[in-house]
Specification:
heterodimer; A: 116 residues; mainly beta; seven-stranded mixed beta sheet; globular; B: 113 residues; 11 strands; 56% strand
Chain lengths: 116, 113
């Protein structure tokens, strides 16, 4: 138990659906992250929020839309996804973010997304 | 393009044997490196954070070393046990205005009974 939860754990959606992934951390951390892991690829950082402000967006298509309403919750809104977006989506948090931070990340268990 | 390479990709080790694997990273502008253990169907879990050249960290039967000048870190497991079966990830961050974190693909370790 890492203190980071994600729901749902599995999601199957059509290309025209709209769905959301949810992440919650109970660690009092200030930074939260979304990662994508596709088969046989390394974890790819998608978005970073620090103190509820987006500080990193790694050229992610606009069909992925993050939202951080407070420092404990992070959402990833999904709209008109493609089959190649099927992957494991991991959420993580750390105490802080930014230059000079060596903070360890605490990961959730991930959402396995399949886009039909 | 900055890459983190982990080798080998996959490893089978007899229970009781010791093993090690490598994380290679660009040696310039190094800031920090983390090792994580990721068991199937669970969350990646942090093992070590390493920042200084020559760092050596230990946690039970698992230890890690860091060489920032040549750009590698080793993870060692002594006397492998079935519960060590997992994917071991490393990530690398560097001092750059983008402050990116880059992960390797991991080493998948299978302990054979």
């Amino acid at each position: 138990e890492t203190g980071v939860t994600q729901t749902p754990r599995h999601l199957v959606m059509g290309m025209t659906n709209k769905k959301s992934l949810k992440c919650e951390q109970h660690l009092g951390h200030n930074a939260m992250y979304w990662y994508k892991q596709s088969a046989k690829k390394p974890l790819e950082l998608m978005f970073v929020y620090s103190l509820e402000e987006r500080v990193e967006n790694n050229s992610v298509p606009s069909r992925f839309s993050p939202e951080c309403p407070n420092s404990s919750h992070l959402f990833l809104h999904l709209h008109t996804l493609q089959p190649e977006d099927s992957a494991l989506y991991l959420c993580a948090s750390s105490q802080d973010w930014g230059r000079g931070s060596t903070d360890t990340q605490y990961f959730g268990p991930g959402t396995r997304l399949t886009v039909l | 393009i900055l890459n983190v390479e982990q080798s080998p990709q996959s490893l089978h080790v007899q229970e009781g044997d010791s093993t090690n694997f490598t994380c290679s990273f660009p040696s310039s502008n190094f800031y920090a490196l983390h090792w994580y253990r990721w068991e199937t169907a669970k969350s990646p879990e942090a093992l070590f954070v390493m920042t200084l050249n020559g760092d050596e960290k230990k946690k039970g039967r698992i230890s890690a070393t860091l060489n920032t000048k040549e750009g590698y870190s080793y993870l060692y497991i002594k006397g492998s046990q079935p519960e060590d079966s997992a994917t071991y990830l490393c990530d690398f961050s560097y001092m750059n205005r983008d402050d990116k974190i880059i992960f390797g693909k991991g080493t998948r370790l299978h302990i054979l009974p």
